[in-house]
Description:
The structure is a single chain. The strands form three sheets. A seven-stranded parallel beta sheet has the order 3-2-1-4-5-7-10, sandwiched between helices. The chain has one domain (2-204, 239-272, 294-308): NAD(P)-binding Rossmann-like Domain (Rossmann fold), CATH 3.40.50.720. The chain is of the alpha/beta class. It contains eleven helices and eleven strands. Helix 7 packs across helix 9. The protein binds NADPH dihydro-nicotinamide-adenine-dinucleotide phosphate (NDP). Residues 7, 9-13, 32, 36, 60-62, 80-84, 97, 122, 124, 167, 194, 196-197, 212, 214 line the site of NADPH dihydro-nicotinamide-adenine-dinucleotide phosphate. Residues 3-265 form the NAD-dependent epimerase/dehydratase domain. Belongs to the NAD(P)-dependent epimerase/dehydratase family. Dihydroflavonol-4-reductase subfamily. Keywords: Oxidoreductase.
Amino acid sequence: TTILVSGANGFLATWIIDILLKRGYTVRAAVRTEAKGQHLMNQFKSYEERGKIELITVGDIVSETAFDIAVKNVDGIIHTASPVHLGGGEPNEMIVPAVSGTLGILKSAMKYGNAVKRIIITSSCAAVKESVIRPNLDENDWNELSILECERKGKNAHPLDMYSASKTIAEKRAWQFVEEHRSEIKWDLVVITPPWIFGPPLHEVTSPETLNSSNMYWYKAVFEENYFGQNPETDPMHGWIDIRDAAEAHARALETAAAGGERIIVCAGSPYVWQDLRDASKGIQPKVHSVGTIFNTAKEHRILGLEYRSMKVMTDDILAYVAKRGWQ
Ligand code: NDP
């Protein structure tokens, strides 16, 4: 069984690939350029030698035909590629690649994905939760507010709204695409929406400055007391999840028949505040919060049955990673 994984050199995808290879899948790893795939291929060299992983370059996912060749003869697709940062100068910097990448891979799969049975897209809790606090959110909730904020404020919109709008619009368009092309497609869609993902990276990181965005925020909060203008004690963030559990969710989404056609929230804990991560790094038990968003994971438990790592395990493993590199 061969699975195409997009954004293969990224934080999440590298862990997904690790899980898939260990379970015997063959992986086609899609990256922007050959150079972007170097570290990945070195890391999984023993699998490459056995023909279990191959690299494919797809260029910028803004191009609608980027995945036309990549989708041929694969049994499933896991689409993680999307811009992930809070430095968007204007909304379309985030929205255009997110939407084109998602619609592009679906279109390519429809036209050329001769063997595709299932497509899994990584959306985000940012596509579920609006900035206003609501106590109990589930898969029926959508972050409409960030889209409105971007429409209203353009380049003055908050970067978090730009990212959130990119994830919300991309996911909405994906479901719409499946609805409109139901009679032409032979695969089903699963969408996984994780909250903030933290954990020890497997992908190429050469310094704290080159950490992927979410781990960078973790690093700054824990070691530099930089909370991006937020109050670390009282401003509730949405949820968190260990990278290995987020990756496992994607593998289970591939393997669980009942996941077909479902949007699934995966979340180890919600809400949290930045101080919780600092506390966990000092071995202090994080507090229980009464204010903030709680993501309902009943559907995930019913369909995927994940057992989430604790904040302590996640934190200890990142600290070990950081210590091994002598960064702190
Ligand atoms: P990374 O930044 O580590 O990985 C993103 C990947 O997408 C990279 O491989 C990147 O390639 C690729 N990509 C982005 N834009 C383009 C483009 N225009 N053309 C080609 N490739 C592109 O992020 P994560 O692994 O953390 O995120 C993966 C997915 O998970 C994303 O969809 C994200 O929205 C979602 N997610 C992440 C969360 C988190 O906390 N990390 C939380 C919830 C959801 P390149 O290196 O070449 O830029």
